[in-house]
Amino acid sequence: MTPLPLTPAPGSAPFARQVLAQASLEARLLLRNGEQLLLAVVIPVLALVGGVLAAERVGLDFDATAVDVLTPGVLALAVMSTSFTSLAIATGFERRYGLLKRLGASPLPRLGLLFGKVLALLGVQVLQGIVICTVAVLLGWNPGGGVAGILLALAGALLGTLAFAALGLALAGALRAEATLAAANLVYLLLMMGGGIVLPRSSYGAAGDYLAFLPSAALGDVMRDGLIDGTTSATAFVVLTTWAVLAAALASRSFTWE
User: Fold this and answer.
1) Residue 167 CB contacts under 8 Å (≥ 6 apart), including other chains
2) Taking 80 as the threshold, does the pLDDT of residue 255 lie above it?
3) Is 131 among the domain residues?
4) pLDDT at position 113, please?
5) Mean pLDDT for the chain?
6) Residue ranges making up the domain that contains 70
7) How far is the C-alpha of 159 from the C-alpha of 218, rounded, in Å?
8) Residues 191 and 214 sit within 8 Å (Cβ to Cβ)
9) Is residue 6 one of the residues assigned to a domain?
10) In Å, how far from its chain's centre is CA 111?
């Protein structure tokens, strides 16, 4: 039998291919998890539909229609749910089961693992945006910010993703898995109800001025300003940037892989 002209070529795959493969795996695992899917899609959609119906029944007074005001806030909530809560919980249990330690011994470098997680988050957020925007349009949503407003909202969503992802990694790296689960869900509920993310800060009276310093309120402000009338708040962008830088520094110092 004539031997085949095969030449061994040991080595790892290119860095970009490794990152894409890891991102695809991370996204599939996230979407297969019922609890994470609940946080990523179901709760934001219920918040949008329930908020619009409640506003019509109660007669809440907004500067625009209820669906126009609530949709940007719910999109911001979806960003927070995925980049903070879901990431923190998943990473916490990956540390507990030793998965991160084993990945650290693979050809995939740690930077590639982080890039893969970020790409997976962005991919899931695209799916969230499609679902939420479709529901919002069926409810009568008409974004008035135009192309410029959409670009501003996307920039805010990306910056918010970086800030909340860094916070999620810092939390997962500092606490045990069970404590991370409890803390991440508690913070999510507190910010959803009182963090100025779904409802405008003006809805909270005098406390609204203090909420402006929270990343949740800053993200909600950026999304609402951009999608409602195409404007932007420099203060909100500064707050998000500050949180992103500080949280990244905290995560880099406190995060452990096992």
Assistant:
1) 84, 88, 215, 243, 247, 251
2) no
3) yes
4) 75
5) 85
6) 16-254
7) 10
8) yes
9) no
10) 19
